[in-house]
Structure prediction request, 359 residues.
Amino acid sequence: MTRKKALPYLVLIIAVFAFLVLLVFKDIIIGDKPLLGEVKRLEVYEELVPVSNNSVIYNGIDIMIEGENSNIRAKNMEGTILWSMKLHGDVSSIKGCGEDFVVNIENKSITTISKSGEMLWQYEMVIPASDIYCSDKGLLLIQYRESSYNYFEIFNMKGVKYCQGVINNAQVISFDGTADKNYSISMIDTSSDKIITRLATYNNKGEITWAQDFENIIIPSIIYNSKGELIAISDKSMMKFRADGKLIKKEDFPNPLVKVSFSDDLMVIIQKNSEFYDVFVYDLNYRQIGSAAVKSKPEGVFAGHKYFLIYDKDNLTMFSRQGNIMALYESNIDINSAYIYDDTSIYIVSNRKLQKLGY
Prediction:
């Protein structure tokens, strides 16, 4: 009789124990948290170098685009030429813009090219561009400087003009947009003795729908989330605005901002603490989902979808979105930049060499 009464309690204890084990090891089961001692070591799987030492290059996902004089070509990591073409002038710079590329030709015209090598659009600029900015959403902003004012144009990769406007003496720092609806720009007023940053949102008629000035604050990064809310990172705080400009949330940084990186899914912020560097991970709905700490000052950070990278010139660390260390790499050459794609492909750039890492 006593055994029969004890049996339900034993089953309950086993069930509770199993549930606790599942909670502890759930990250291991889904691959977000390694077992102790199972942090992986990354190795160089493939390497790519440009043909010329004097060419203009852009490194992307399994691709290196090289421009030399008026010739441009793309190679994959095996060194196979994917496509090539001759342009109507010398290549000045190459930028990634969403999944496509923007080629600046002698700062007089631009050409946009798809990853497969299709020429999408050619544009002759009336005056040389003072700056060209690209967003991950495939939007292109060209800033021009006249004698008494500055102005901008925003296009997509096929040349559809979404917006244009005059910004007087301001200098664009960053921008982002939502399809053909809202376009927000962070800019600094260069005519003032003080540091004045303006956040301004334009519609597709070039009209300002809302704007706000910030004194003694720099806002180097802005991005729209999937809800159409604007997230702005300043050197002192993180802010989220509704589409009409209403401030939804603001969080002041307790320590100086060191680095920030966005993806469509993650926002990674690094701050300087007294003895180390705090790493905070958010989703784009402004929810903190992870944290970490690193001892050495990071030279760069790159936010992917499921993982993010932190690196200096000698070392690279891959973290899960919760802040767990997943993999390490010690380089024998200086790391200039690093990025991750599809949560499996990790790339580092050293001088003019592109390396693909794996484990």
